[in-house]
């Protein structure tokens, strides 16, 4: 059976919620090597509402093809600035210019695991509110209502 060939079909991108900020990591996979033969990668850590749009903007000024390595959603606007600044501070030994970091391929896994660990421990994922339908809550409410009723009774029927 012959299937039709679709030319110039772009892969669909995952849907991103642009209501929230996102911390992203772009990786420029270079063809550059050190004298020892270790490959060099450049990474950009930044913040954007739409990382897919941002990668296109950054790509125009970058001579190497960029790939999106990670996107982390931040639910509170101020936290995005703080997380980005803290990541830049933690990775300052790799910094080469602004938000760009130069990493040897041998250090790349350590670099990414440090970032993942930081994002995991400083996540602001919205928590569900506790539901007050537990038996202890009901017992306490009944006990308080009974105490209140007794106080009112003795206050009105005091001799």
Could you characterize the architecture of this molecule?
Helices cover 39% and strands 25% of the residues. It has 159 residues and is of the alpha+beta class. It has a domain at 21-121. It has a five-stranded antiparallel β-sheet.
Return residue spans where pLDDT drops below 50 for at least 5 consecutive residues.
Answer: 1-10, 127-133
Structural class: alpha+beta
Task: Indicate the mean pLDDT.
Answer: 77
Most strands sheet: 5 strands, antiparallel
Order of helices and strands: EEHEHEEHH
The counted number of beta strands is 5
Strand content: 25-35%
| End-to-end Cα distance | 99 Å
Order of adjacent strands in the largest pleated sheet = 3-1-2-5-4
* Rg over CA atoms: 27 Å
Spell out the blueprint of helices and strands.
Layout: E1 21-33, E2 39-48, H1 51-59, E3 66-74, H2 77-90, E4 95-97, E5 100-104, H3 105-121, H4 135-156
Entry summary:
By secondary structure, the chain is α+β, with helices and mostly antiparallel strands.
Structural features:
alpha+beta; five-stranded antiparallel sheet; 4 helices; 39% helix; 25% strand; elongated
């Amino acid at each position: 059976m012959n299937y039709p060939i679709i030319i110039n079909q772009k892969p669909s991108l995952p849907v991103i919620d642009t209501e929230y900020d996102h911390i992203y990591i772009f990786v420029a996979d270079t063809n550059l090597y050190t004298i020892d033969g270790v490959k060099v990668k450049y990474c950009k850590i930044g913040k954007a509402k739409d990382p897919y749009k941002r990668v296109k903007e950054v790509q125009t000024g970058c001579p190497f093809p960029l790939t999106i390595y990670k996107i982390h959603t931040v639910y509170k606007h101020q936290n995005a600035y703080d997380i980005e600044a803290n990541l830049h501070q933690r990775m300052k030994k790799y910094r080469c210019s602004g938000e760009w970091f130069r990493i040897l391929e041998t250090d790349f896994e350590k670099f990414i695991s440090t970032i993942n660990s930081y994002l995991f421990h400083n996540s602001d994922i919205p928590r569900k509110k506790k539901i007050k339908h537990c038996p202890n809550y009901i017992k306490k409410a009944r006990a308080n209502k009974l105490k209140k009723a007794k106080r009112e009774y003795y206050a009105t029927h005091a001799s």
